[in-house]
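Quick one: Arginine--tRNA ligase from Candidatus Giovannonibacteria bacterium GW2011_GWA2_53_7, structure tokens please.
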Amino acid sequence: MTMCMYTIQKAKQQVLQEIKKAMGKEYSPTIEELTAPPDPKLGDVAFPCFVLARGLKRNPAEIATELAAKIGPKGFIKSVTNTGPYVNFTFHAGTLWAEVLQEIAQPTYGTSEVGKGKKILVEFAQPNTHKEIHVGHLRNFFVGQAAVNLLRANGYTVTPVSYINDLGAHVATCLWGIRNKGGAMPGAKEDRIKFLGEAYVHATKAAEENPAVKTEISAIYRDLENQQGPFLSLWKKTRVWSLRYIRSVFKELALTINGWYCESDLIPDTKALIDRLIKEGVVVKSEGAWIVNLESEGCGVNLLVKTDGTLLYNAKDLALALRKEEDHHPLKSIYVIDARQSLAMRQLFATLKRMKFEKELMHLSYEFVTLKEGAMSSRKGNIIRWETFRDAMTELATKKTAARHTDWKPKQLAATARAIAQAAMRFAMLRQDLDKKIIFDMEEALSFDGFTGPYLLYTSARIQSILKKARRVKPVFHPEILTTHQEHRLVALLARYPEVVFGVGANLHLSALLQYLFELAKAFSEFYETVPVLQAPKPKDVATRLALVGGVGKVLTNGLALLGISTVKEM
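--- reply ---
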């Protein structure tokens, strides 16, 4: 593992040294073999003896007993016990905390330089123009931004880019709807995107009922691709509407996009690329269409150009990959795209490999989001617009907050409710493993109990309140004070934070960070309910426990920031 040598790493290295001494030259354990005991009361680190037992052809429980007897207290290690085939190590909370406290005081606590000098490009936030941004887009937005934040925390130079589909069949469908739906074009800016969505639904229904409409829409699409025809000026006008709207939503959600690509800009490059690949024999003709046969790679047929000559998304994705390489030269490109596009991603990567494109490519896949009411579809017009969803979440958060704070002024109430709603949305979209579908429940997401964003915000606000009440007391650490299991548990969790950030940055299993923050919040709650802080009998006790409380507050704030969640002072 390559990361900064934080205290937890030093403690684990000592564990490995002691195991190696006890075993002699027979075995050299690695840090990856160390694990966490199933119950924190058993210890801070466990060493399973299964691999060792297989090599020695002995009973793992017997080896664990022998190792525990040979290894005594030393440095970070307070005690060593065994449970079955596991050797459990408990660290000195005071010794551990003395160093961790100094580390937490640094603004860079938890970060690493493993990615220093390495460029990664992350493509996410890819909404279509001429459509409304809805609840289904949010998981992509939040997963992409969290991935960017975690990679940056590990030292990588990250470029987040957005690829906007501004010239697909859906655009031609929308434009046909505008011309044939009837009614005046909207004057107010706030009505424009809803108008485009309604035109799209109208045209989709008309095309399903009348094949001639479908033919007309196809003709519009061909004209737009060739930048000609009677719908070109309408496309340009409505495209500007859409791009302004998309940028405004990105700004509201604090998405740090700093590279923009649009499908329409890639048309000339794509056509030239297809011609080149035909000459090279990578692209071949099949039943009037142009394809790449990837059956030998288990990816079927990659269809690039339809029989009518129009380009498909897969073709433009090839040109986009080359454009991104030319612009940024990343070591690795990550595509944050939902699981339904997995085949298309495999086809893209396989085709690029045929083209001798050697850079590392990764599909960060996630399942889609539905609401309790059921699945959504832009085609059917039953989506929940981002604005509608945001306002409903904020209204519900406002009611919950107002019930607890009848004396708050409207400005404070509104700001807190917005923060709670944002935390609830992001946390609920990120807490599930990416391969699990999400059925979003607003009431559940806004709950102040359980595995939710508001629960973590509440814990953070509670900590800030404690520190505010004790502002005249200087937090000073006295190691002999930390004697309870609850204090030890908090110290051990705080020491683990750098490993969590490093691990999630390496594998992008984002839910692991949320689970860690939840465990930390729960451990703090148990600590605060059972161990006196401000009411502690001695000034040393108060000062030491305030230092511990402050450490938890910093780590919670920093961890939530990696998820794009801002804390609040009161709730």
